[in-house]
Amino acid sequence: MQQLARDVRHLSDQLAVCTRCGMCQANCPLFAQTHKEADVSRGKLALINGLIDEMFEDAKGVNERLQKCLLCGS
Known about the structure:
This protein is mostly helical. The protein has helices at 2-9, 12-15, 29-34, 41-52, 60-66.
């Protein structure tokens, strides 16, 4: 878990690009089906920040949620 947190910290510049405005919700096909905040960028960033801060005892559920992205670019 600590290694994962260290790996994610290296991506902080790329993660900062998202302004967390929520506009992607309107275009996200996954969010349209699930209506879960964790399925759009803002929610995924919250999960990633939780990993960085080591808020989760088991990252498996977080990883599963992050892997659900369709990478469609919406």
